[in-house]
């Protein structure tokens, strides 16, 4: 059980910050013994922010958090995982009463215990595999390895007159071309009160790209040729590096 004190990134949009393209929020909390710490919210856990803001004076129960040591300060931090949850405790809940009745002044130290085998498995052991030889989740790696979906690589055919080439488009650039729409949001609405879904926006975007003479695009392509002994190309690959839409 924890008491929420503040959001560390309150000056930024909705208490969140973007680090390496991943959204996170840092929540300052306090235990019943007065010990303060931080809960790092990642991914879907960012939806907790509005509830936490509405019930600032409540004692919250967090479940399935990951304990990690901050590489800079050396202090232990709590991180949300895809399985984490939180809910406020009612004032008449015995756990809430116990939280406030705890003698904070009598507890000046805290400890974290972990058995040796678990520590070694987290630090040095190879990931286990299931019956299909698929690697099991790396729980110590969370939250940076949370499940994320990507578009499949695509092949873009570029024509100029009678000439054409096939250009490979990597997943990250596919998402950028599709207006930075994540693949896991395709069937969601673009706004709470809207009936338009992201998949419709993506379909319109693809249609505009494939419509001749409707738009002009500037492509940056990296080429790779492999020639035989007679300098005749036997392998040629083109990789798309950048895609910019120009007004026609």
Q: What is the oligomeric state here?
A: single chain
Q: List the secondary-structure elements in sequence, H or E.
A: EEEEHEEEEHHEEHHEE
Largest sheet: 8 strands, mixed
The third-level CATH topology of the largest domain is: OB fold (Dihydrolipoamide Acetyltransferase, E2P)
Determine the structural class based on helices, strands and strand pairing.
alpha+beta
Uncertain parts: 8-20, 104-109
CATH superfamily of the largest domain: Nucleic acid-binding proteins
Q: How much helix, percentage-wise, in residues?
A: 10-25%
CATH class of the largest domain: Mainly Beta
Terminal CA distance reads 59 Å
| Number of beta-strand segments | 12
Strand content: 25-35%
Describe this structure in words.
By secondary structure, the protein is an alpha+beta fold. It folds into 2 domains: 2-117, OB fold (Dihydrolipoamide Acetyltransferase, E2P), CATH 2.40.50; 154-246, no CATH class. Helix content is 17%, strand content 33%. The protein is built from 5 helices and 12 strands. The protein has helices at residues 48-54, 94-101, 116-123, 171-177, 198-210; strands at 2-7, 17-19, 22-30, 36-42, 59-63, 66-69, 76-79, 85-88, 154-160, 163-169, 216-227, 233-246. The strands form 3 sheets. Strands 1, 2, 3, 4, 5, 6, 7 and 8 form an 8-stranded mixed sheet that branches. It has a two-stranded antiparallel sheet with strand order 9-10. A hairpin with a 2-residue loop joins strand 9 (154-160) and strand 10. It is elongated and about 85 Å long. 10% of the residues are buried. Residues 11-74 form the Shieldin complex subunit 2 second OB fold domain.
């Amino acid at each position: 059980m924890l008491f929420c004190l503040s959001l560390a990134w309150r000056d930024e949009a909705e208490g969140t910050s973007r680090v390496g393209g991943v959204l996170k929020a840092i929540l300052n909390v306090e235990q019943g013994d007065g010990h303060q710490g931080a809960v790092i919210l990642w991914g879907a856990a960012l939806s907790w922010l509005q509830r936490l803001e509405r019930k600032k004076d409540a004692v919250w129960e967090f479940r399935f958090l990951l304990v990690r040591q901050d590489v800079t300060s050396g202090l232990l931090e709590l991180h949300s995982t895809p399985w984490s949850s939180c809910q406020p405790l009612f004032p008449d809940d015995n756990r809430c009463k116990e939280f406030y009745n705890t003698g904070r002044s009598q507890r000046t130290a805290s400890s974290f215990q972990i058995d040796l085998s678990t520590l070694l498995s987290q630090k040095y052991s190879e990931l286990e595999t299931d019956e299909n030889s698929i690697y099991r989740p790396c729980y110590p790696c969370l939250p940076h390895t949370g499940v994320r979906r990507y578009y499949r690589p695509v092949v873009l055919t570029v024509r100029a007159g009678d000439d054409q080439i096939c250009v490979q488009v990597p997943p990250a650039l596919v998402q950028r071309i599709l207006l930075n729409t994540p693949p896991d949001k395709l069937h969601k609405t673009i706004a709470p009160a809207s009936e338009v879904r992201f998949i419709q926006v993506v379909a319109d975007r693809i249609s505009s790209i494939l419509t001749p003479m409707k738009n002009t695009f500037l492509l940056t392509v990296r080429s790779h040729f492999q020639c035989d002994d007679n300098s005749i190309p036997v392998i040629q690959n083109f990789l798309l590096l950048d895609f910019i839409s120009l007004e026609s």
